[in-house]
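TL;DR need C-alpha cells for one chain.
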Amino acid sequence: MTSTSDPTTTRLFAALPERDDVAAARLHARLVAAAQHEGILDVAYRTIDTPVGTLLLASTAQGLIRVAYQAQDHDAVLADLASTVSPRVLNAPARLDDVSRQLDDYFARRRTGFEVPLDLRLSRGFRRIVLSHLPNIAYGHTESYAQVATAAGSPGAVRAVGTACATNPLPVVVPCHRVVRSDGSVGGYVGGPQAKQTLLALESGPR
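>> reply
TL;DR here they are.
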C-alpha cells in the first residue's frame, strides 16, 4: 500500500483542483433551470437575512407556501415540505426574488403589505379562516385573540385562534404578530417574543 507521505502521492493530491464555487454555482443554476423546464421543481426555497434573523422562504407553483424562522429548524421544515407537499424540493433563489424584495422593503419601512400569491394548503378548517382574516388587520394596528375569534365567526374560540397563529406557516407575510392578548401584552409567537416585539415596533415607528 502506498503511504500518503509518499512524494508521488503528495504530487497527485497537489494536482487536484481546489473547490470551484463559481463552477458549482453555474452547475446548480443549470440544474434549477432544467428542473423548471421539465416541470419537476415542485418546491423552491431560499433564505434571506432580516432584522428578526434568517428566514426560510419556500414556494410552489401556486404561491408562497412557507416562511420559517431559524428557531423552527430550517432543515426540519424542508423535510416536512418534502413529506407533505413533494420530495422535489430545490434551492432555487430566483423563484423567490419577488417576495424577497418585498420583505426587504417591509423591513426598510417602504412597504406595509405583501402582494404575492399564497399557497395556504398547509392550513385547513378554522385555522385557515383565521389566517385569511389576519391580513385585514392594518399595518401598525393590533387585534386581540378574542377580536380575531369574533371576526372568524366563533367568538368562543380564543384558544383556537392562538393555535392558528402558533401554527401559521407564513409568519410576517400573514401577520399573526398583530394578534395580542386582551391586556395588550404581546403573547406567544412562532418566532419568539423578541421577534414579535421587533415587528410590532417596526410597524409602529415613523415611515
